[in-house]
Each structure stands twice: as structure tokens, then as C-alpha cells.
# Entry
Amino acid sequence: MPDTRPRVEGDREAEIFDATVELLASAGYDRLTMDAVAAAAKASKATLYRRWASKAELVMEAIVRVHEPHTELVAPRTGSLRGDLLEAACCKGGLADDKPLGVMAAVLTALHRDEEFAEAFQQRFLNPRIAVLRSIYEDARRRGEIRADVDLDLLTSLLPAIIVHRSFVLRKPVDEQMVAKIIDEIVIPAATRRPPTRPRRKKRA
# Structure
């Protein structure tokens, strides 16, 4: 069914999105309210609800429009797995970019508490980035750079998991040098080395 709700367009829409993202960064998702967005954007709450049915819908659209206004995430084509991973992670909007990491920090608790928002965040923010990484590994497999039998689902989650853990759990910075170290010492070895052969259990006599 087509969306028949009235649109808030142009500069007015941009002001609302900017106010939403600023409040998200300062207060976090849980404490952000439609009242606060309306006040910050100098708009009525009725205007917001005529366009966005819920806080989750407004925040998700604001994140996508402010952080990726004219950018479609596509897999780089440098010709090597290492080059592609470095470019994907360190480019604007990439895994190690402060903006996506800041978004993750602001919505982390909401992903466990708000099912509607978590689903939208998965579909519109996380899945495009996961698709880029998977495409990189698929290209590398076609070139023969990684094992043909490697588990791409596990491999795709490896680099983001380490970056997120380092940023949010260890509270340490992730710059291009650190990304290169993770790729060289963990990701590429995991993708290319054969797992150790498990010893066969001896049958009891």
C-alpha cells in the first residue's frame, strides 16, 4: 500500500532530521522524545506525527538521510581482499568511520528494547554494510584468494565484531592502522588457513 501521509520536505525536513540526530547523539535513543525533537526543530508535534508514525520511524529515517544523504554503499574493487576490506572499513560511512560508530553508540540499548526500531535498524543501516562485506569476500573467493569452503556468514561478521568490541567494550580508538592490523593478523589468516584436523577418537576395544 502506498504511503499517503503528507510529506515534510526540503529545508524543513532537513531541520527536523538534523535536530533528531543531534538529540540522538546527546541524549541517546531511550531519552529522545517527539516533544524534544519538535521543540528543537521549532515544529509542532502534530506535524511530526502526520509524517512519522513513531519515534522509531523518525529516528531511523533521520539516521539514513543525515549520515548517508547521497551515498549508496557499494563494494570497492581494488583487486585484492586486503585492499577492498581497508577501503570499505576506512571510507566515509565505513565500519571505522566515527559517524556510524556514533550512531551505534547512541542506539545500542534500543536495539535490545525496541523491536520495531531494531528491525528497521537491521534492514536499513546494518544490512547494507553486511552486504558490502559479503560481496568483498565473494569476489575474493572467485579470485582464489580465500578458501572455497570458508563460512562466509562467520567471516563477514568478523571485522565488524572486532571493531565494535574494541570501540564499545574496550573503549579504544579504531583508526586505519588498527583496521589494517586486524585484517592482516586475524581476518586474512582466518579466511585462508585450513582449520586444524581434529584427531580421531580411538575406539574402545
In short: The domain at 81-192 is CATH 1.10.357.10 (Tetracycline Repressor; domain 2). The mean pLDDT is 85. The radius of gyration is 21 Å. The chain has ten helices and no strands.
